[in-house]
Amino acid sequence: MKHEHILKHHQLKVTPQRIAIIELMHHRGHISIDDLYTAIKYKFASISLATLYKNVHTMMGVSLIREVKIPGHKSKYEIEKETHAHVMCKECGELKDIPFNAETLLKDTMNISKYVANDISVVISGICPNCQQ
Amino acid sequence: MKHEHILKHHQLKVTPQRIAIIELMHHRGHISIDDLYTAIKYKFASISLATLYKNVHTMMGVSLIREVKIPGHKSKYEIEKETHAHVMCKECGELKDIPFNAETLLKDTMNISKYVANDISVVISGICPNCQQ
DNA sequence: GTATTTGCAAATGATTTGCAGTGCT
DNA sequence: AGCACTGCAAATCATTTGCAAATAC
Lengths: 133, 133
Fold this sequence. Notes:
Chain A is an alpha+beta fold. The first copy, chain A, has five helices and five strands, in the order ααααββββαβ. The first copy, chain A, folds into two domains: 3-79, Winged helix-like DNA-binding domain superfamily/Winged helix DNA-binding domain (Arc Repressor Mutant, subunit A, Orthogonal Bundle), CATH 1.10.10; 84-132, 2-Layer Sandwich (Dna Ligase, domain 1).
């Protein structure tokens, strides 16, 4: 329902596969292609990896989702939302959002570098509470 | 000379290939595997991609170099130094260092998430002065 | 009805591995 | 001398592509 609307809002055709992708991302917060494939197969035994790649690509093209590149790990994908940072656990791989206001950093960056800057990716690595024993 | 020393300091054997890799990274600041391969072939016509991959991997293992993962582009590698941010031009791909003090962000992250955080990657995207026409 | 999407299989591209020979310390 | 490093070719893994059938609008 809601997820259908997200697709329409980005002028994408609504297919059950796409709905399933968005549902999963919404539910998990961040998910890798492989995990997406594994999880989605419960609903769509017949879905192909090619379809996932195509859709992930398409959805990034219309800024519906965003890739999170993580040092030393495979990328995860998340639904676009306000700017935030990520903390990632080196032990278990858990990825978590952290509120983060980029204004100052973007302004400083533009002053120093003379770039026109409009996008930022922040990934912090560490050990999560669970993995600290 | 200096580059030999860097290798020894990280307990790696000194080979001409490794010196060439470090020389290039030092000179260019940031370089992708492919560019590294192309550039290094002037000195080492016989060097193999496998050797580059192995060495890059080894050097990351001892924290001599670091991978910079860039949204929408191939990774680049740089010699480890104090924490800093990166700005990357969406047009020409140029990557530049920006001074950045991570203290506050790391502290806040630890408070909020209860992670023990010790590493951070910041990549800002935009358009560089040249590409702005 | 038309254009887009899907799923398959094959193609491509990137990275890793095994191994014999070579070079570093 | 002994172990690590190199370069090659082959293997593996990730992603993309072409195309015919199915589906969305």
